Amino acid sequence: MHSGGQVVVGVDGSPASLAAAAWAADEAELRHAEQVRFVMVSGDRTTDDEARATVGPVTSRFAERRSGVEATSDVVRGDPADVLVGLSGSAELVAVGSRGRSPLAATLLGSVSAKLAAHAVCPAVIVREHRSSGPVVVGLDNSPHSRAALRFAFDAAARYRCELVAAQVWQDFEYAPVVPPLDYELAELRDGALRALAEQLAGCAEDYPDVPVERIAPRGHPVAELSAAAERARLLVVGHRGRGGFTGLLLGSVAMGVLHHAQCPVAIVRDGR
C-alpha cells in the first residue's frame, strides 16, 4: 500500500468540495501520507483574501482531527482545473468535488471535475458523497489499461479492509432488437465475461490474499450496471485511456456517464502510475 506521498484536494467552500476535503483527509491518514494539501484557486488578486478565508478554516477543521499527517493550505492563482491538473504531476492522489462554485455548478458534473478526471497524471477521485463503509467496486473490460484500475482497487480494499467487487459488464450488440438471443447464447456470453474476470483477477488476487472478492458479470449498459453495482459502495474505480468499454477518455461516454450517475466517490486511474 502507498505511503509517504501527498494527497491534493481542491476546495471552494461548496458542499461538494467539503465532501471531497473530508474524503481526502481520511484517505491521507489511511495511506500514511506525509501531507494533505488543501488548495483554493483564485482568479486574481482581488479574490485572494476571500480564498484564504475559505481554505484556511477547512484546513484547520480537518487538521485538528488527524495525527501524523501534515495539513497545509494554499491559494494559487489560475484556472482551477489547470492548477489541479498541474499539481497532479507530483501528487499520489488528487480529489475534487463533483460540483463547485462555477458557472456549471448547476450541472451534474462541473467543468473542473470533468477536466481533472480527463487529464490528471495521478489517480483522480471525484467526490459527490463521502462514505466510510461499503465495498470497493472496480469495472474491468479486458483492456491492458484496466490493470492499473484493478491494482488501485485492490490496494484501496486492503486499506479499507473491505470487499472488492469486480464487475465485467457485457452486451449482445450483434443482435437486432427484434431478434432476441437464445438462452444458451446469453449463458455463453455471461460465462465468457466471468472467465475474463477470472483471468484478470488471477495475478492481482495473489498479492492481496486477505481481500475478499466478489465477481459479477451483469448484462446491460455499463453506465447503468456499474452505477447500480456501486449504489452502496465506498469507492468505484475505472481505468483511463482504454480502447473500449468505459476506460476510453476524454472521458468516454461510459466513464463520463458513471461520473454523472454514481453517488459514491469515483476514482479515475491513469495507466502507468
TrEMBL record:
The UspA domain, residue ranges: 7-128, 135-270
SUPFAM superfamilies noted in UniProt: Adenine nucleotide alpha hydrolases-like (SSF52402)
Signal peptide residue numbers: none
Record-annotated membrane-spanning stretches: none
Protein origin, superkingdom: Bacteria
Pfam families tied to this protein: Usp
Keywords assigned: ATP-binding, Nucleotide-binding
InterPro entries: Rossmann-like_a/b/a_fold (IPR014729), Universal_stress_UspA (IPR006015), UspA (IPR006016)
Any one GO MF annotation of this record: ATP binding
Family: Belongs to the universal stress protein A family.
Protein's recorded name: Nucleotide-binding universal stress UspA family protein
Organism: Saccharopolyspora antimicrobica
Organism lineage: Bacteria, Bacillati, Actinomycetota, Actinomycetes, Pseudonocardiales
